[in-house]
Amino acid sequence: MLAGRVEEMATPDILLIGHVARDLLRTDPSDGYRLGGTVSFAAVTSVKLGRRPTIVTAAAPGLDVSELPRDVELHVLPSAATTTFANTYIEAGRIQHCSMRARPITAADIDPSLRRPRAALLGPIADEITPDVAHVLAEETLVVATPQGWMRHFDEHGRVHAKPWESAPAILPHVDAVVLSLEDIGADLRRLDPIVAQVPLVVVTEYRDGSTLYRRRDDGSLSVTRIPPRPAREIDPTGAGDVFATAFMIRFQETGDPVEAARFANVTASFGVEAVGVAGIPSRDVVLVYMRENPFRMGAHG
């Protein structure tokens, strides 16, 4: 564990598993970096929403984690490298390169004291979480997965490309919800079929168009609900999906209402893109005030 962090805590409230990352500010490493990765955005979101996050990650010694709130509990597995990305945004999306990858995270790395949180987010960014991690989390834990990192492969130049989610059959039976983007599935909704067939809740984020919630009923039928966006003045979209997934997980764990949770997540993520990095992630009060002033009517949206 990194020095200066909380040494002992009770059973985790929110457990976040995945690589922290160095996100290069330019393509040249000498230009510096900021802290990135799903778990980094998720940790800040959790704190902003009044919850207590614990991160299990892997990184090289000396990684600067000062951007994280002080009350985040960090469990850092030693690694020869820290996962490092460079992101270039274009009209059609983003181009990513990964120059370094930290070691994988396995079930053996999840201490027994961490396996019974209220909610857990599996947030891989570089195919780093092995399938057995999902197996060791307690049955009563709400487990949410953001599979983008399992759906990436890296060419000889580090360019990130899409691939099928090969580990899905081993992971899906052990998760309660999956959050992914249209980009993750190449805008091909047919790729959702095997996920929806095994997971009761699937949310697809659709950038400026909000999100769509897929709920599998007890009789096997499927309910599809479009959740409208909050219009945002976008400055930096990096991490928006991570903020969404975390806010959805937290609100669903609190209310048991997936529509409420998806609306809450839409609003939270929309505020997040209005500043650079994690600076725009809003407090719970800001989100709830907006939702009260702009109610969502199911009948109007399906």
TrEMBL record:
Keyword Cell wall biogenesis/degradation: no
Protein name as annotated: Carbohydrate kinase PfkB domain-containing protein
Molecular functions (GO terms): kinase activity
A Pfam family reported for this protein in Swiss-Prot or TrEMBL: PfkB
Recorded family membership: Belongs to the carbohydrate kinase PfkB family.
Gene3D superfamilies from the UniProt entry: 3.40.1190.20
Record-annotated Carbohydrate kinase PfkB domain positions: 198-279
Organism: Polyangium fumosum
Keywords: Kinase, Transferase
Keyword Transferase: yes
Transmembrane domains' residue ranges: none
Lineage: Bacteria, Pseudomonadati, Myxococcota, Polyangia, Polyangiales
SUPFAM superfamilies on file: Ribokinase-like (SSF53613)
